[in-house]
Design a protein that fits this description.
Pfam families: Methyltransf_21 (PF05050). This protein has nine helices and eleven strands. The chain has about 260 residues and is an alpha/beta fold. Strand 5 and strand 6 form a beta hairpin.
């Protein structure tokens, strides 16, 4: 078989998604033709793809599932239009999607209809819950912020939305365990966690968005806030980089309990 024929077969395998077989093909081509530019480039691409997959939410949740994590309930705080890895990896859990921006409700309703056991709630998650809170929403509806101060880039005047706490929501649902809690609230993660003390059980897993490079990085503060509850970082996933200087901007922290079944693995 010629190198060109081997490269075509390898590329077809690569396109099929079988990265392991494609990698072996590219390595064989490089053994037969050391330094072959196309084979070397495509082998590098496979390694980059593997890194991207490993850093994804889907992969880390799959690893936790393989280690025995099987949540009875998944709470998605700041769901926007849905977080597919949560229900792709754990389709049998009860999924609760909480989102304050009502314009996302049709999309969430559609997602819930497609799942076996799911519901959505249009509300902001706060420390104590109850009543309503002001919500600033950007014109593109991609970002929202709870509070009286208008954030940079906010659009129309603030609207009022119902407020709930995770402690209250979990109690209302009968406190099922184990829990998976994903939090993406554009800066108010610590407020949400302060209202989630009852959820901090040994078999709970948290996935929390944390900034790294803004004026007041939230990553160290989130880690410090969870430490008294005996939670520690198990993985760091979904890195985002600022386009203007390629500096890391934010990540998602995966946190597990020190006494939980996943910490020593």
């Amino acid at each position: 078989m010629s190198v060109a024929d081997g490269l075509k077969i390898a590329f077809d395998v690569h396109l099929s998604g079988d990265l392991e077989r494609a990698e072996e093909f590219y390595k064989a081509i490089l053994r037969a033709s050391p330094g072959h530019p196309m084979a070397a480039t495509l082998l590098g691409l496979i390694r980059s793809q593997r890194t991207m997959v490993r850093q994804s939410k889907h992969k880390t949740l799959t690893l936790l599932r393989a280690r025995g994590f099987n949540p009875a309930m998944v709470i998605d705080v700041g769901a926007q239009t849905g977080t597919p890895p949560l229900y792709e990896v754990f389709p049998d859990a009860h999924h609760l999607m909480i989102e304050p921006v009502v314009e996302h409700e049709p999309a969430l309703r559609d997602v819930c209809r497609q799942l076996r056991n799911a519901e959505h709630l249009i509300a902001a998650v706060t420390r104590q819950g109850g009543g309503t809170v002001p919500l600033h929403v950007t014109d593109d509806r991609l970002y929202s912020c709870v509070g009286s101060e208008e954030p940079e880039g906010a659009g129309p005047p603030p609207r009022r939305v119902p407020a709930v706490s995770l402690d209250g929501v979990w109690a209302d649902h009968g406190r099922p365990e184990p829990l998976l809690v994903k939090i993406d609230v554009d800066g108010l993660e610590l407020e949400v966690l302060a209202g989630a003390v009852s959820l901090m059980k040994p078999d709970t897993v948290f996935v929390v968005e944390a900034t790294v490079a803004d004026d007041n990085p939230r990553l160290p503060r989130i880690i410090d806030a969870m430490a008294p509850h005996r939670f520690r970082v198990w993985d760091i996933i979904d890195p985002l980089y600022r386009p203007q200087d390629e500096r890391m901007w934010q990540v998602d922290l995966v946190l597990v309990h020190n006494d939980g079944p996943y910490a020593p693995l």
